[in-house]
Amino acid sequence: MQLRVVDDQPWDVQADVMAVPFVGEPAFEGSLAELDRRSGGELSTLAAFGEVKAERYGVVVTAPGELKAGRLLAVAAGDPETITRQVVLRIGSTIERRLAGSSVKRLAIYLGDLGSQISGGVEVVAELLARGVVEGSFEPATIYRDGVKSAPPELDELILVAPGAEIAALKRAAERGVVIGEGANLSRRLGNRAANDVTPEVLAGEARAIAERHGLSIDVIGPEKAAELGMGMFLAVGRGSDNPPRLIVLRSGEQGAKDSAGRRLALVGKGVCFDSGGISIKPADRMEEMKMDKSGACTVIAAIATVARLAPGTPLMALAPAVENMPGPHSARPGDVVKAMNGKTVDIINTDAEGRLILGDAMCYAEKLGATHLVDVATLTGAVARALGDQMTGAFGQPQEWYDAVAAAGERAGERYWQLPMIEEYRKDLDSWYADFTNTGSAEGGLVKSALFLREFATVPWVHLDIAGTGYFRKKTPYAPAGATGVAHATLVELALAGATKA
């Protein structure tokens, strides 16, 4: 897709569609009034009819009148008091998805008043809208089928229209947005692929191809090497499947180097390619969704690739422990005691609390490789979805300064996190007669206890992002299809780029 930024007036731009976001109730004044006049009063007529209204992400497509575009599309940004970076991002996605099934090749978007609504101004708007259009183009139905007529259009050209703006700066920002959007779509495509298609070995192969494309180093650790390293938790989960586990380690930058912020940052993503629950088997209802349990791994693999595109050579690591959690003849059993890489022993009470086991060993290995700061991303608990739904990611971290840095990256990325407390009194519920602790306690406070468990494997600043609610949508929205969302990808990219050497 070619990207262009122009400083023309929107009524002078030639395109198949001219998209115009408006803020609040449609007030036909200024440029919106002129667009309405040149369209022959189409927008004001539809507003009077009740079709153009302030409800966020509402879209109407109408005839262009005298405009040079083939169609005029108006999209509501909603209440100006609640417009955030995420809202602007989703406006871009909504525009692209509203055109699904249409033969649109050139899409123009008028930036209008959005720049005055968020911090960062028009450059941030250009980045988020371009990223949103790219993310809006993703359609999981095309992974296994050809000729999906309801898919969003494949654009030849995206034109951002910003009268009076500095074109070069806006284009740089928009290009950055396109790259981040493409990275999110890489994560989503991997996450949506079926378990019979993406085994741990296949995911490792995908990571190898990504590493080759982007100049990353890669190491893939199999069961024998994992045993030598003492990864008893990782192996306990993976041994129940005929598809053996793989710990995928991607690295950029010089060996041992730290970034400009003095960090050797490691991103660790849960890669359960299918989660049956193991011996503690899950109910059949919605078990097919458990191919999504690899979303954290897909996210960190995509994130390091995106950073390599935007800031090559930035010191960074991505670790993806990839397993299948199956009830096979060699599966871990409730009551088994295993030793983690850091020497701690764990009493496995519930084999369906497997994500924390593989993450713990991967976090230990990241520190062995020199990580000074950790962020793990995982579809870890149903509790977080019950607490926060599919719009807010639950997060834990220590020390507070490191959590704040991750949260600030999320703010820049247009992603939302809610910090949850690590309540020390709950730690005793993980006590075991036979081992240092169990892998799960009673249901009360289970979300907090999952973080307390992971904390046992971090000796450096660490943040845990539980994306079990936000990692995939069960139904489509105006801005996204059902399926993997790529959530946290942009946050991790922004976090890593905060330590990139400035050109």
List keywords for this structure.
34% helix; 503 residues; Aminopeptidase; 2 domains; 19% strand; alpha/beta
How would you explain this protein's 3D organization?
The protein contains 14 helices and 20 strands. By secondary structure, it is an alpha/beta fold. It has 2 domains: 161 residues, 3-Layer(aba) Sandwich (Leucine Aminopeptidase, subunit E, domain 1); 310 residues, Aminopeptidase, CATH 3.40.630. The strands form 4 sheets. Strands 7, 8, 9, 10, 11, 14, 15, 16 and 18 form a 9-stranded mixed β-sheet that branches. A 6-stranded mixed β-sheet has the order 1-6-5-2-4-3, covered by helices on one side. Strands 12-13-17 form a 3-stranded mixed β-sheet. β10, α9 and β11 form a beta-alpha-beta unit. The radius of gyration is 24 Å and the shape is elongated. The model has no long low-confidence stretch (mean pLDDT 96).
Highest CATH level, the class of the largest domain: Alpha Beta
- Name the structural class: alpha/beta
Task: Please work out how many helical segments DSSP would assign.
Answer: 14
Q: What's the number of extended β-strand segments?
A: 20
Radius of gyration: 24 Å
Weakly predicted, low-confidence segments: none
- Which range does the strand content fall in? 15-25%
Average pLDDT reading: 96
What would CATH call the homologous superfamily of the largest domain?
Zn peptidases
The third-level CATH topology of the largest domain is Aminopeptidase
Distance between the termini: 26 Å
Tell the overall outline: elongated
Fraction in helix: 25-40%
- How many structural domains does the protein architecture include? 2
Sketch the major β-sheet.
9 strands, mixed
Secondary-structure arrangement, i.e. CATH architecture of the largest domain: 3-Layer(aba) Sandwich
